[in-house]
Amino acid sequence: METCLALDLGGTKLLIGEVDRQGRILKYRRYDSDLSDQIRALELIFRSLDDYLSAFTPEPFPVAMGLSLVGRVDPGSGIWHQIDPQRTAPLALASDLAERYGIPCSIDNDVKSATRAELRWGAGQASRDFIYLNIGTGIAAGAVVDGHLVRGGHFNAGEVGHTQVGVGVGVRCCCGRMDCVEAIASGSGIDLCARLLRDRYRTGLQIPEDGTRVAFADVLALSCTGDPLCRVLVDNAATGIAGLIMNMVRMTDPDTVVLGGGIVVQDEMFERVLSHLHAPTLRFVTQGVVRTRLDARFAGLLGAAAVAFEGIQ
Question: Which of 25, 41, 135, 255 has its CA 20 to 30 A from that of 192?
Answer without folding.
Answer: 41
